[in-house]
């Protein structure tokens, strides 16, 4: 099934069902939670959440314990950039 088919189905869904679906996706995992929060409620708090996650990933203990993966940091930055479409917020999250 491609995106066009999903769009056709979603066009007929009532708003309460769309909200329920969005809520389920929000609860599904931390990545969805961050993405939906950044997209729908852009704020300094969403910048701080992404910044704190990046700090955790880039911490000395992560690096020295062999838990650092460049792809994890890139994924957080890319997802935040896609969610906000705001270069200044992305730069702020990375500082």
Secondary-structure element pattern, one letter each: HHHHHHH
Quote the distance from N terminus to C terminus: 40 Å
Return the structural class: mainly alpha
Write down the overall mean pLDDT: 85
Give the proportion of residues in helices.
Answer: over 70%
**What global shape is seen?**
elongated
Q: Which blocks of ≥5 consecutive residues have pLDDT under 50?
A: none
Annotation field: number of helices: 7
Strand content: under 5%
**What's the Cα radius of gyration?**
16 Å
Number of strands: 0
**Main β-sheet: number of strands, strand sense, barrel status?**
none
Key words describing this protein structure:
mainly alpha; about 100 residues; 7 helices
Q: Can you walk through the features of this model?
A:
With 95 residues, the chain is mainly α. The protein has a domain at 42-95. The protein is 80% helix and 0% strand. Helix 4 runs antiparallel to helix 6 (70-84).
List the helices and strands and how they pair.
Elements: H1 3-11, H2 15-28, H3 30-40, H4 44-57, H5 60-64, H6 70-84, H7 87-94
Condensed summary:
The protein is an all-alpha fold and about 100 residues long. The chain has helices at about 5-10, 15-30, 30-40, 45-55, 60-65, 70-85, 85-95.
């Amino acid at each position: 099934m491609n995106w066009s088919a999903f769009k056709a189905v979603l066009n007929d869904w009532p708003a309460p069902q769309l909200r329920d679906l969005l809520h389920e996706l929000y609860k599904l995992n931390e990545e969805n939670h961050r993405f939906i929060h950044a997209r729908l409620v852009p704020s300094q708090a969403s910048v701080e959440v992404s910044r704190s996650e990046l700090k955790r990933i880039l911490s000395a203990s992560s690096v020295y314990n062999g838990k650092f993966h460049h792809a994890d940091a890139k994924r957080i930055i890319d997802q935040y950039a896609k969610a906000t479409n705001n270069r200044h917020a992305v730069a702020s999250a990375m500082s």
